[in-house]
Structure formats: structure tokens, C-alpha cells
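call fold(seq) -> C-alpha cells
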Amino acid sequence: MGYIHASAGLKKIRHAVMLDIAAFGIIVLMAALMLFIEFKKRLSGMPAEMEGTLLVIAFFMTLAPIVLMLLSLFVQLRGLRLAAKDEASFKIAYILNLIVIAASGVTSFLSMRNIGTDILGSVSNVISEISQMVVMMLVFRGALNLFSKEGQTDYVKQTKTTIALIVVVYLLSTVTSVIPNFFGKTGGSGLISILCQLGSAVLHLIVLNSYIGFLGEASKKLG
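ret:
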């Protein structure tokens, strides 16, 4: 028995993950560039004109991941909505995504009004990271439920190991992303922030590469 809606939905989610991988790849490059600027300034100094040019490049590099992630979110929502026709876990993931989008909108509004910016921003980042992980786990759960119905128990056991590794790496990424908040505006906070951003992006890429492999295989098996 094939699950054509789940298969098609997982393919769309896989396309969304491709966009995320591209976004985090750019973030890694941007963090590496900022790291170069920071070390260059500390070690031998940097001409103001060169620093200004590199900062402009870094600024435009921040725009691309935002656009890619917004596109990814839209594609993922379409995929989850389609896959939900075959399994309830996908529907829960879809609803959770909508809640996170609404919460992010409220947080952005409050930040623009300078209401609890630092604390709210930190809490919002953690909640967003955990929510994304929960959505990912719901996608795994939905696919595994369908595999179980088809009697593919060996593949289910194999995938649970992958899930455990992804959860560990995702939690490490979440911790890494909030570390800079504990250093306030101390002398080394800028460098620490860049290093944490780089580490978090690399960890995200590890997770996404494992996830995209699962989505590709799952969509084929369920089609």
C-alpha cells in the first residue's frame, strides 16, 4: 500500500530542507568572514575602507539566509499540509509551525517596541529552536507510523538511532546559540558571539544533512 500524499509531502519538506542547508551554509561563510575581520583588527589592524567593504558584504550575506528560510518555511508548510492527509503527526507539526510563526511575529513586534528585548530575544530563540526540533520529530514520527503499518520494523529501528543523534546535536546547537547572552557586553563578547554563531550553524548543517537523507529515503519508500 502506498501513501502518495505523505510521499509527496515529504518530498516538499525535503526541498524546504535544501533551502535551509543553503541558508546555514551562507551563515557559516558570513561568520567566517566576521571572524576574519575580528582577528585582523585584533592582531594587526585593518584599514577602515577595507573593514567597511567587508561589513557591507557581511550585511548583504545576512539577507540571503532570511529570504531562504522564509521560502523554506512556506514550502515546509505546504509539504506538511499535504502529508497530513495520510498521517495525523504531520497535521500536528503543521499546526505547531503556524503557532511558532504567530509567536515569532509577536516577539518581533515587542522587540521593535524595545519591550524586554534581551530576555525576550533569548527565550524566543530557545523556544524557536526547540519548536523546530519538535516539528522535525513529528515528521519522523509520522513517517515511522506509516512504515510500521507496512511492517517495515527494521527500518523503524534503524531510524530511531538517527533520531537520537539528531536530538543530541540539535540540543547542543540550541545551547551554543544562547551562550553569548551570558557574556553581556564584555570585551570578548563580539568574538564569542561570532564563534557561537559559527558553531551553531555547523551543528545545524549536521542535523539537516541527516534529516534530508531520511526524507529522501522515506518519500521513496512511501510512494
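The radius of gyration is 20 Å.
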